[in-house]
Design brief:
With 279 residues, the protein is α+β, with helices and mostly antiparallel strands. Helix content is 39%, strand content 20%. The strands form three sheets. The chain has a four-stranded mixed sheet. It has a four-stranded antiparallel sheet with strand order 3-2-5-6. The relative contact order is 0.10.
């Protein structure tokens, strides 16, 4: 998953778990007794630690971290064993899993967007594994110098293209099901902006209506503007497009513009002033 990537800063108040009081994030992680469970907030360009607690005997843990606005978070058991959550102010979530492979084994309840994020991740991870297997099969036949490699390649490529088609449809349906929700950002990142820019814009418009003050959304809107500018710049250089205006002075100091030669064939040669052979 590219980039979830993260998109914004969240105002979070750190809370202490009162004696006997159940926190808003609780769970049970087997094979983690005595380890520290750390909750972090993921912003656009930094990671902020929010709370950490030791896992009790039997795997239980509890945190009380008030959440002011919806945002991406990471819960980790150690440096390379973590999961991504989308926490909302009213969430009271329960997380279970096995510390030996927390990412693959975890389950989350009580957070609609975190549950949807897991559903998205499960699908994309499964699709990647199948596509990776197809690639390995082709390379195996290629390494053997199989006499029917071309035919095998066409069959595998057809399977690959069909999976891409199904993946795109899954992502479109997922975005439709979660319109205006932060988790839609994670889904759109799995699509190409070159092929699905209209869908990128639709996601941005929906989020701008539901979360206009979110820095995640503001960051995404900035990306959209950059994409649009890049696309427009690309169109300006296409064959048949109107050439951009060029204005300069002749060696005699007279002003001259490219548009002065409109309707005529013009050869424009760009060169470096320090390059004598170019001149």
């Amino acid at each position: 998953m590219r980039n979830i990537y993260g998109v914004a800063t969240l105002l979070v108040l750190l809370g202490m778990v009162a004696c006997g009081e159940k926190g808003n994030i609780t769970g049970n992680i087997s094979n983690a007794e005595g380890q520290m469970v750390v909750l972090e907030h993921l912003s656009f360009d930094q990671v902020n630690g929010l709370d950490s607690v030791a896992v009790e005997a039997g795997g239980g843990f509890s945190m009380n971290v008030p959440v002011a606005t919806t945002g991406y978070h990471r819960l980790r058991v150690d440096k390379d064993n973590s999961i991504i959550l989308i926490l909302e102010p009213e969430d009271k979530i329960t997380i279970t899993g096995n510390a030996f492979d927390f990412y693959a084994s975890y389950m989350v309840e009580g957070s609609t967007q975190s549950e949807e994020l897991k559903r998205l991740d499960n699908y994309l991870r499964g699709a990647f594994e199948v596509q990776d297997s197809l690639t390995k099969v082709f390379r195996s036949f290629q390494g053997q110098g199989h006499p029917r490699l071309d035919s095998i390649g066409k069959v595998l490529d057809a399977s690959f293209q069909e999976m891409n088609k199904n993946k795109r449809q899954f992502l479109v349906d997922f975005i439709n099901d979660n319109e205006g929700k932060l988790v839609s950002l994670s889904a759109i990142e799995a699509l190409s902006p070159e092929d699905d820019y209209d869908l990128y814009e639709r996601v941005g418009d929906a989020l701008n209506k539901t979360m206009p003050e979110s820095e995640y959304v503001k960051g995404f809107q900035k990306r959209l503007a950059q994409m649009k500018a890049k696309a427009e710049a690309g169109k300006a250089s296409e064959i048949g497009a109107m050439a951009p205006e060029l204005a300069m002075s002749t060696p005699d100091g007279a002003p001259i513009k490219l548009s002065d030669f409109r309707g005529k064939y013009v050869l424009v040669d760009f060169w470096a002033a320090w390059c004598k052979p170019c001149r």
